[in-house]
TrEMBL record:
Requisite cofactors: Mg(2+)
PANTHER family: MOLYBDENUM COFACTOR GUANYLYLTRANSFERASE
Root EC class: transferase
Residues where GTP binds: L15, G16, G17, K27, D82, D111
Keyword Kinase: no
Localization, UniProt: Cytoplasm
InterPro entries documented for this protein: MobA-like_NTP_Trfase (IPR025877), Molybde_CF_guanTrfase (IPR013482), Nucleotide-diphossugar_trans (IPR029044)
Keywords: Cytoplasm, GTP-binding, Magnesium, Metal-binding, Molybdenum cofactor biosynthesis, Nucleotide-binding, Nucleotidyltransferase, Transferase
Organism name: Aminithiophilus ramosus
Descriptive protein name: Probable molybdenum cofactor guanylyltransferase
Binding locations of Mg(2+): D111
A single GO molecular function term of this UniProt record: GTP binding
Membership in a protein family: Belongs to the MobA family.
Length: 211
């Protein structure tokens, strides 16, 4: 069955890319041919979600806000700023969940420009009444940075942070995780690319096949 069209009843959350040591700079501000990597990510998300939230560290808030007016996004973009810098993606998730207008967030990194609409919609369709997380399994591994999180995850994510565990999956044992098997995506051409990020300068320079 083909997933239904139209915006999903969820927000999109894009997590800032940290210091990007291998990339030579913060991934939030990396560009190819004058186009920010972040803008390429937003182009994929805007048709799918009524709200876009960027979760960034305190040091990146002002540089990002200066660039927001130039981003060609058809949706308003909100900025959620981490209370503490340098605590990784779990801190970004907690900041974003606090800022949401609704109950669900699709969370990705700012270095994931190949997000596939059909993959996202298939993941969303797998939610159940008690789901707190919708997470795909690819090659036998969970993909926490291309997943849906419900606001109900917030206290458990905060508790994991307080304990010193900064992994996105740190609180999975405390909530109901609906795992979507890879078989659900195999009929979708190029589904693996949806989960891929940009990790090296050479990968960044090969972004010639994107619209």
């Amino acid at each position: 069955m083909t997933p239904a069209a139209g915006p999903l009843e969820a927000s999109a959350v894009v997590l800032g890319g940290g210091r990007g040591r291998r990339m030579g700079g913060n991934k939030l501000f990396l560009a190819v041919d004058g186009v920010l990597l972040l803008e390429r990510v937003l182009r994929r998300l805007v048709p799918l979600f009524p709200e876009i939230v960027l979760a960034v560290g305190p040091e990146d808030e002002e540089p990002l806000r200066r660039r927001l007016p130039s981003l060609s996004s058809a949706r308003p973009v909100a900025v959620a700023v981490d209370a503490v810098s340098g605590l990784g993606p779990l801190q970004g998730l907690t900041s974003a969940l606090k800022a949401l207008r609704g109950d669900w967030a699709f969370v990705v990194g700012c270095d994931m420009p190949w997000i596939q609409e059909a993959v996202v919609r298939s993941l969303w369709q797998a939610r159940e009444a008690g789901s707190d997380v919708l997470c795909a399994s690819v090659d036998g591994y969970l993909e926490p940075l291309h997943a849906f999180y419900r606001r109900t995850c917030l206290p458990f994510a905060e508790a994991a942070l307080a304990s010193g565990d900064r992994r996105l999956k740190a609180f999975y044992g405390d909530v109901r995780v609906t795992v979507v098997a890879e078989a659900a995506f195999r009929c979708l051409p190029g589904y693996r690319r949806s989960f891929q990020g940009i990790n090296t300068p050479s990968e960044l320079n090969r972004l010639t096949d994107l619209p």
